[in-house]
Input
Amino acid sequence: MAHATVVDVAVLRRRSHPHPRRGGCLVEVASTLPGGVWTDRPACVDPVLAAAARAVNDHTRSDVARRRLLVLAPWLVTGGRAGGDGTAAPLGGLAGRLVLGRVDGPTSARVAASVATLQAAPVQVRWPRWRRWRRWRRQRRAVGLVRLAARVLSRGPDADAALFALLAGAVNVTRDLDGLPPLDAAVASGEDLPQMLPVLVEVRAPDGAESMYYHCTALTDRWPAPLRTAWQARMRELAASSGVRPAATQVGAHAL
Output
């Protein structure tokens, strides 16, 4: 460990941030729970679900409503298992259903066509490069739908509640794919959460200065009880499904 310090991250802020001192969006905060590179595109969150979380984070109108999205952060972590073709169709379908009826005719037609394409059985291809390309195309189509849904919902009445429901629904889609029950309604409680969360930030350079990055780990022993309890429950789920316990994030006792 070349250098480590504890940073109080301002949560939640719009868009991405080069360093935790600048604040963190919902996905950046979620990435610190298992610990890893500071990014809003972490490997531990399904890419389509991450796109939905970024869009909801950025389109939520009030700072208070955005901060309440924190209750979903532990449940965004998929452990890198939910990626691929598996989530594109259900998450894109969820977004499409929310958009239809709220946009004009031509846009509705394009949305319906995108959803139909995602839900069609993919043609089997032999070559790995084409399979990767097809997976990327399906993910991009689904990402476009969830972004559109967030934009459309942000213009309607009670936008913040509708955006929260979009992201909670997306989380439950991934849970259903994993054979898990939907999140309890209590998760969506309006309990106020803090404006700052402590995170251990380490500067790592495995291959010299050009490879330098920030490795960030949530100090969950100092996080509010609702977030800490939710993350412990999520770790148990991930361990049960994979047989491997996620890395612990109780690092408050580390010497800094």
Q: What stands out?
A: The chain has a mean pLDDT of 87. Residues 89 and 118 are 5 Å apart (CA to CA).
